[in-house]
Amino acid sequence: MGISQVTNNRHFLPVGLGGLLAFLFLLASTMRAEAQLLDGVAAIVDDEVVLLSELRTETELIRQQLLHSQNHAPPQDVLARQVLERLILDKLQLAISRRADARISESELNQAIERIAQGQGLTAEALYAEAAADGLSREWLRNKVRDEMLVTRVQQSIINRRINVSEQEIQNFLSSEAGQALGAEEVRVGHILLPLAPAASDGEVNAVQETAEALREQVLQGEDFAQLAVLHSAGQNALSGGDLGWRTTNQLPVAFAVALRDLSPGQVTAPIRTDAGIHLLQLHERRGQGERVLRQSRVRHILIEPNQILPDDQALATITQLRDRIIGGESFADLAREFSDDTGSALKGGDLGWSLPGKFVAEFQAVAEEIPVEQISEPFKTQFGWHILQVTERRDQDFSAEILRNQAEHALRQRKFSEELEVWLRELRDEAFVEIKI
């Protein structure tokens, strides 16, 4: 996995950062030396400029990537024009991020670098070392990833506001074939087919039906279904024990799906008649959506946020004192209203309501899941500051319908995102002042 795979597939670096980096760094070093003598302006973009050295470096990086992944690349002048257009769009989007004061924290950047390194089977330090050995400095790598993340953040922020997914669209999608596949569970099924012509006589039907019943009885008595399939089935999968593999229920004949609906793994259907003959099915396994029953916790908390006036150690001391007061008998809700820096929940006595998947950051979620009901947690820290929490109730809730609806909305948004992004980028380019100097 390369940098591009962490940053919206924008393909600034080759997929592999191994031996190819050696060439790229020699190239970059050469171009930096050339830039001191030959640099100039390739394009003016509002208040920004694209330097000739920047264009040459990016063009060669992408040319080498194309040669590495596809064994060919467009002519240099064609590729350079395409790269210049992308650099222009990047300058415009980075300018938006600066005006919005968007920032990538060191923690976020480090996590992104870690993901890139893991994709290469390396640690972050090993990735830096490999890049440095090949001439790409630590600063260059971090700046490249940071810019990619900022551009992606700008796109997500603006495009998501431009996209509207109506409730009717969601319901229509859920009713469609694609929507039904989204929620369909998968089953692994064994199959025995006893062939029978559609126009078979009653005597022929009865004879085959009796054979099917006899085979089913053998399975119920402990005979191996797969062995019986090898011996008796006329199905295409007979020699593999009749195993149909994993199928969504939507991929099975309706008669099969209905017959399997209430079976548990290991059970066998009654004989099923279709135009192909009479079938026996054994359900081996189920997987997929089904019911999504999740354990929920109702949580309240108090947050003390360190700042310039209240250093981290004093914030910890404050939250510890509040915990001691609650254990001593004072009201959690009253202390939350008076002291918590989470203004949204403080007005409700620290109540955060029922937890949902992804609602809380990982450190908070871990404590909320582990602590017994009514117990006051030890102080713990998240990115927001120091917390104590209490779980007041727990319940098991079926979120199947809600999760399916959210998946449908996400799928529709993904469909619309790429198209809307292209429209917005064209608008951005048309509204900008751009002067090509080459």
Question: Explain this structure to me?
Answer:
54% of the residues lie in helices and 17% in strands. It has 438 residues and is of the alpha+beta class. α3 packs across α4 and α4 (76-99) packs across α7 (138-162). Residues 1-37 have low confidence and may be disordered.
Brief overview:
With 438 residues, the chain is an alpha+beta fold.
Q: Which structural traits does this protein have?
A:
438 residues, alpha+beta, Triger factor/SurA peptide-binding fold, Chitinase A, domain 3, 4 domains, four-stranded antiparallel sheet, 11 strands, 54% helix, disordered N terminus
The biggest sheet amounts to: 4 strands, antiparallel
**CATH class group of the largest domain:** Mainly Alpha
- From the 3D coordinates, which CATH architecture of the largest domain would you assign? Orthogonal Bundle
| Count of individual domains | 4
Strand order of the largest sheet: 4-3-6-5
> Could you give me the name of the CATH homologous superfamily of the largest domain?
Porin chaperone SurA, peptide-binding domain
Tell me the strand percentage band. Answer: 15-25%
Which term fits the overall shape?
A: extended
Total beta strands: 11
Indicate the low-confidence ranges by residue numbers.
Answer: 1-37
The third-level CATH topology of the largest domain is Triger factor/SurA peptide-binding fold
> Distance between the terminal alpha carbons, to the nearest Å?
35 Å
